[in-house]
Amino acid sequence: MAKGKTNVASMIGFWAFIVGLVIALAVGIMAALGTAEAIMPATIIVLIILGLLIGFLNITAKEILLFLVATIALIVVGGVFAPLSTFSIGKILDAVLALIATLMAPAAIVAAIKALWSVGKPGD
Predict the structure, then answer these.
(1) Nearest partner of 50 among 8, 105, 94, judged by Cα
(2) Most distant CA pair in the chain: distance in Å?
(3) Angle separating helix axes 40-57 and 3-32, nearest 10 degrees
(4) What are the residue boundaries of the structural domains of the chain, listed by start?
(5) How confident is the model at residue 102 (pLDDT cuts 50, 70, 90)?
(6) What is the phi/psi pair of residue 25, to 5°?
(7) 48-83 pLDDT, tens digit each
(8) Over the chain, what HEC string results?
(9) At what angle do helices 89-120 and 64-76 cross, to 10 degrees?
């Protein structure tokens, strides 16, 4: 692939990540406060699409291991902040982290498939 196309693809992946984080933060706060029920299904679909873009355009072969470990850590900590009841901080953090995990899960699937492909292909 030409260098210009690679640069454009990585920028699209980068902006998909930024937009996904902003959406996860905003909708997570609204969900924790009880005002996001109507937009939650559409939000999840958008986050999945953005996650796929991130996985296909942003994760390189040398980043796969670190990315997968970070995604696993993100998913494992889900629900850990629930006991923080002051100002609903725990509820907000859990909602935001759940949506960030929704964004990163499709990217992790793509990265895992890329890793399996590189391990399973013959040669080097």
Answers:
(1) 105
(2) 56
(3) 150
(4) 3-120
(5) very high
(6) -65, -50
(7) 999 999 999 999 888 999 999 999 998 888 778 878
(8) CCHHHHHHHHHHHHHHHHHHHHHHHHHHHHHHCCCCCCCHHHHHHHHHHHHHHHHHHCCCHHHHHHHHHHHHHHHHCCCCCCCCCHHHHHHHHHHHHHHHHHHHHHHHHHHHHHHHHHHHCCCC
(9) 150
Tokens 């690679």, located at residue: 6
Q: What is the rounded distance in angstroms from the CA atom of residue 42 to the CA atom of residue 36?
A: 11
* 61-86 per-residue burial string, b: 16 or more CB within 10 A, e: under 16: eeebeebbeebeebbeeeeebeeeee
**Residue 37 CB neighbours (<10 A):** 9
Structure tokens at 57: 């355009």
